[in-house]
Amino acid sequence: MRFPKLRAAAAHAAAALCLFTAAAAPAFAAPVKNIVLVHGAFVDGGGWRPVYDILTKDGYKVTLVQEPLTSFGEDVTATKRVLATLDGPCVLVGHSYGGAIITEAGNDDHVKSLVYIAAHALDVGETEASNGKKYPNSTKAVVKTPDNFLYLNPADYPSDFAADLPRAQAEFEAHAQMPTSASVFTAQIPDPAWKTKPSWYMVAKADKIINPDLERMYAARAHSHTVEIDGASHSVYESHPQEVAALIEQAAQQSGQ
User: Fold this and answer.
1) pTM higher than 0.85, yes or no?
2) At 143, phi and psi to the nearest 5?
């Protein structure tokens, strides 16, 4: 007559074990759905359109920052202004100089992870200018205006910035540049966000604006999830939107866990 009691006790223990196992199992959060895109020097946010279209089609809420390129502080402020409008966590993405911006603005509580697209990921005490001396690029296109803004010689822009874009598109961009304050390239970042937040990195292997070896150094130092794109110019975010969007979505999916 004791066997039914033993069976009941065993059933109770099994049920308790199931409850314990369910409680101990990790809960997987939903993917991050907000994506914020930050452009680099000399351009505006319009170049993100192909990536924007892919991400929005896949169900992400995408916002572009249109920073003024007048000073590093003002560009970071423009980015934080967008972050403040979000209703949840985000993946913060930067191209080129935009990488320096997200390295500073990425300390915002909304930001779960960072994605660098052929971008600067500075450490304390570094500047884009100083790192460029350690890892020289291969362009001679940079021109300074009398009031200390920089732009790229339009004749050199297609080959140096956008060699893998259609020629007509590259020439249009060459004549639609946003001159950028020279001061942004000597800005320093006291608390780089990549030191505390996960990051993803895309290396453009044919980049003439940022040395690909400098990009690799940034990615390795930050322990970024890294991909390299063959034949990609500095305009990799425009010429390879599928690969860029895939990397951003990987960050969004894994940042939610």
Assistant:
1) yes
2) -125, 140
Q: From CA 228, how far away is CA 201, in angstroms rounded?
A: 8
Please report where in the chains the tokens 């069976």 appear, as a residue: 7
- Listed in sequence order, the DSSP H helices in 25-71 are 49-57
Rounded Cα distance between 65 and 73, Å, is 14
Strand stretches in 145-184, DSSP E? 149-152, 180-181
Spatial neighbors of 144 by CB under 8 A, at least 6 apart, are 150, 182
In the chain, DSSP finds a helix count (H) and a strand count (E) of 10, 9
Distances (CA, A) of 149 to 59, 67, 154: 38, 15, 15
DSSP-derived letter for residue 136 is -
Distance CA 30, CA 39 (A): 27
Round to whole Å and give the CA distance between 239 and 257: 30
Nearest to 198 by CA among 228, 225, 227, 226: 225
Structural domains in the chain, sorted by start: 34-255 (3.40.50.1820)
56-97 per-position pLDDT tens digit: 999 999 999 999 999 999 999 999 999 999 999 999 999 999
Average pLDDT of every residue of the chain? 91
> Cα–Cα distance between 86 and 140 in angstroms, integer?
40
How far is residue 58's CA from residue 32's CA, in Å, rounded to a whole number? 12
User: For 152, phi and psi rounded to 5 degrees?
Assistant: -100, 135
The first and second tokens of residue 173, run together, are: 């961009």
- The DSSP code for 140 is -
| Angle between helical axes of 241-255 and 49-57 (0-180°, round to 10) | 50
